[in-house]
Automatic annotation (TrEMBL):
One of its GO terms (molecular function) is DNA binding. Residues 4-51 form the F-box domain. It comes from the Eukaryota. Coiled coil: none annotated. This is Putative f-box domain protein. Transmembrane segments: none annotated.
Amino acid sequence: MDDPPQLLQLPDELLGVVICHVPTAADTAAFGLTCRRVRKVVCSSPVWKQHCVTTWQHWDPKHGLSAKLAQPPLQTDWRQLFLQRVDNDLEAALVFKDLVSTQQKRLHRMHEIAEKGHDVQDLMLNLRDRTPDQAEDVLARRWHADAILRMMHRSRAIEVWRRFQTGDDVSTEEALCAFDTFVLADRLGDFAAVERRLDSIAQSIRDKNVDFDDKTVRQKALLIAAYLWSEGLVGMPALLPDEANYHALRNNFITMALLSPTHASLPLQSVAIYCAVARRCGVMATPSNFPRHVHAVVQAPPDQTLDGQPKTSDTGPEFLHVDTWQEPHQLHEDQLRLRLLQTGISAHDHDRQLGPADGRDTLIRASRNILVSVNNARLHHEGGDTPSNEQPYALDPAAAQYAAFWAMSLLVNNNDALAPQRREFLQVLLQQFHNQFPEDFALIQTWVLPMLEGSLEYGQMDDFIEDIIEEDSEPKEPKLRAAEFVEIQYRIGHYFEHRHYSYKGFIVGWDVECKAGPGWIERMQVDNLRRGRWQPFYNIVAEDKSQRYVAEENIQVLREPPIEALLQVAGRYFKRWDDTEHKFVSNIRDQYPDD
């Protein structure tokens, strides 16, 4: 009988060492198929631990990965865990394939994948970032993968605000970073990355000031502010401080301020960064309630003054007011009180305005700042200077507005005095959900419907959501060109420029005549058009992501490749851009089979 191969003459222990040097999981599995003995060694090899942590960066908390990594390797069945993650990816990939290939149950399938949470994040990132340009449905894959990732991040942000609102242990900076999670997803980093950056800044301050612990609270507070300013981590050191740049949307996000190449932030975010670093250095600091320009309120210990002297009377805590946004300096209380009087705020309300802000008020203020910036972005197009090295992190004003109304709706919940405001917030929130984020139907069911319970709007909203779910579940009713007596000149996917207003967009639907209501027809002066209301009208998506209804006579088809702003949203409706046909390839053929 022939001798076994030299490799199999090795004892199991050395064979296991060899297996640990097989580079990929696929190669390891293939090696295990060579014979029974190798399979046995492969199945019990700790190499699967390495394959687990290198194949997937994101893990659902249910796996307890950190605890498993701290244990001896053989205490966990790493191969079984690897196979579990592979099965999960395969299942999600099949659902994803179905959702991009048919309109029916598309929202349901997006929700089904998003429900898997962290365990599908790597798969979605690969689909979004690594789908080749030559793929037959490249735009659809990238857009839907990104949309699912954003659904997951919105859900996480909402959970943070919910815990913050109910009094759970959520810091102000974490609640503010939930806006970043909601809008930026993970393009710059998650809250853990922000925490690591804040920890690093605090440690740098201590390293540069070896006698830091010997200083008074006042000295520490001003030293921290001076360090942040000198490092360009607060204020707007890198941008021209004009009105457009001051209200630029990017300045509302702590992640952008700390982790992007250009550090710039509004006073509220600068103060939040300062307070987070101060707390890590043992200094109690909170954003203020002061109108217009937020500053930091530093509090001395109960038994000491700001200058380290023992307190001789029970007069309450001593406060230090620090402006961290401009070149750091102490703000004197008498000057602040004078400014409050000059703005019409009565003296009996001064203590509240000068004291530490309630966390909920800080977040509502942040939400309102975002809405101001969204309006500014629409006025100035890009909302101030967008440095070229930040183009990959360009912010979506619609998503930012959506985040602001979600936060305000959650934060004023259960407050009867703010019920009228809540109704106003919810009205805009639901409008955005319907027009731009219908995939969030489960979030609306879970969090918004309970807010409406007992109101007249509850039944209407419940029916509205059920209609969306039902419409998604049923086959689309096809609109056939052959069934129409009027020639529909343009097709789904045509890229065009409006003849009068010059904005660009693409066609996602059509009617043989204007189907809008009489009010819209009158307001838009449709009957004054050359061909009036009886010409075909087209549902279009414009470059600002708005959905519009355009008369055929105002459509001017373009043959050039579409602009980047439209390519980013085209995947909701289309598979790819066809350079030969000079139009997008439709992915809504269930509804428009002839297009």
